[in-house]
Design a protein that fits this description.
Elements lengths: L2 H28 L5 E2 L20 E8 L10 E6 L2 E7 L5 E6 L2 E8 L6 E7 L3 E6 L6 E2 L2 E2 H18 L29 H25 L4 H23 L16 H18 L11 H4 L2 H31 L1 H20 L3 H21 L3 H22 L1
Length: 397
């Protein structure tokens, strides 16, 4: 196959993907799933414009203070409605931020480094002043910050991996096959028939559960479930295309060598704990209120479905395909950007979580392409999502 034909096919696949993602983004935008960063009232739908009262917005004026009633600046304030981040922004030097929004029920969350995460339920019926006092509440274990404990455990697991690298089948880091240039067709496909069969079975089972159980019975997770139905469906179709006809410009990765399974699992656990500690990760997926956070459905969707389908697509199909067609470097960058875009559509456009999502994907894709397996980052992803849920319960429960 000539380079020109190969590039044309890559272009077709990328255009199709962009159209799908754009359509999905438009769908979530129409549902109101896109947040806005607001520092001052926007002036939309005010009484002066003559809008009917039922369409009027009102102002939520937020003030954040420390325990001595001194204003706290740079507090990240997020307004959630129906489990989606609608509005967000940072308080100014006077500890203030104002949002304009319609009446309804909201969860307002406050985050600041070294301060305990605070939340307020708000039945918003008109102009409201909300004052929130925050206290320094660094989580300590035997006098050691919890984030440092995470890093120590993660580094300890990494040390265990290193000193047992032969038994765990952890090879040396070899020079990349194609850092900036394309590789021969099929060179980035590392998946066997048994793994494909397992992926088909697990994916179909998860899709059935999402469509038949989650969507009709858990309204708060409906939009998220649709996102993962689309993502999982695309991953399945791409995997099927890769197996049916080798002419399709698609590469795929599986779970790697069976002898290296334990090593990959430990790599994922080490990565997750170190990542959580270094980023000061506390609760970056706090998109669910207390009434839904403890449900089995929520844990299932965030820990199992989200982790599996995101890694099946981004790590199992997209990363190796881009590595084969455009090079490893561009694969790492593009996968990170698309992953961040997908998170914005699914969870809202809160800045800090999106930056952390991008950082996670950059490291995750590097690990995936090095190990030629995505079981490691699936484990890491599941651990991070699980701890985000439990952390939310600890801080707000």
């Amino acid at each position: 196959m000539s380079k020109k034909k190969g590039l044309n096919r890559v272009a077709i696949v990328m255009i199709a993907f962009i159209l799908i993602v754009s359509s999905l983004g438009l769908y979530f935008f129409m549902l109101g799933g896109v947040g806005q960063q607001t520092a001052y009232p926007s002036g939309l739908y005010t009484e002066s414009e003559g809008e009917p009262p039922m369409f009027q917005n009102h102002f939520l004026n937020v003030t954040t203070l420390d325990k001595n009633d001194i204003p706290l600046n740079n507090v990240f304030v997020i307004v959630f409605e129906n489990n989606i981040a609608r509005l967000n922004g940072y308080t100014d030097t006077e500890g203030k931020i104002a949002f304009e929004m319609p009446t309804g029920e909201y969860l307002v969350q406050f985050e600041k480094y070294k301060y305990g995460i605070e939340s307020e339920y708000l039945v918003f019926g008109g102009d409201t002043d909300l004052s929130k006092s925050m206290e320094i509440e660094e989580q300590l274990v035997l006098g050691i910050p919890s984030w440092l404990i995470m890093v120590i455990i993660g580094v300890g697991i990494f040390g265990l991996i290193y000193f047992n690298r032969k038994d765990l089948q952890i090879g040396k880091w070899k020079k990349p096959m194609n850092w900036t240039e394309h590789a021969r067709p099929g060179s980035w496909t590392f998946i066997d028939k048994s793994t494909k069969a397992a992926l088909y079975g697990i994916s179909l089972a998860l899709l059935v559960i999402l469509i038949a159980i989650i969507v009709p019975n858990v309204p708060s997770l409906e939009n998220m479930a649709y996102y993962y139905v689309v993502l999982g469906g695309i991953a399945l179709i791409a995997l099927w295309m890769e197996g049916v006809n080798k002419r399709y410009p698609i590469a795929a990765l599986g779970f790697g060598k069976k002898d290296a399974l334990m090593g990959n699992v430990l790599i994922g656990a080490s990565f997750a704990l170190i990542f959580i500690g270094i980023t000061g990760f506390a609760s970056q997926l706090n998109i669910l209120d207390i009434s839904t956070i403890n449900s089995v459905a929520t844990l299932f969707v965030l820990v199992i479905v989200a982790s599996f389908f995101e890694e099946a697509f981004y790590s199992g199909v997209l990363a190796p395909t881009l590595a084969e067609k455009t090079g490893i470097a561009s694969s790492i960058l593009i996968t990170g950007l698309l992953f961040t875009l997908g998170h914005g559509f699914a969870y809202g456009w809160a800045l800090i979580p999106l930056i952390i999502a991008f950082a996670f994907r950059e490291v995750a894709t590097t690990i995936v392409l090095y190990r030629k397996s995505w079981i490691n980052v699936f484990v890491a992803h599941a651990i991070i999502n699980m701890l985000s849920v439990f952390t939310f319960v600890i801080f707000t429960g």
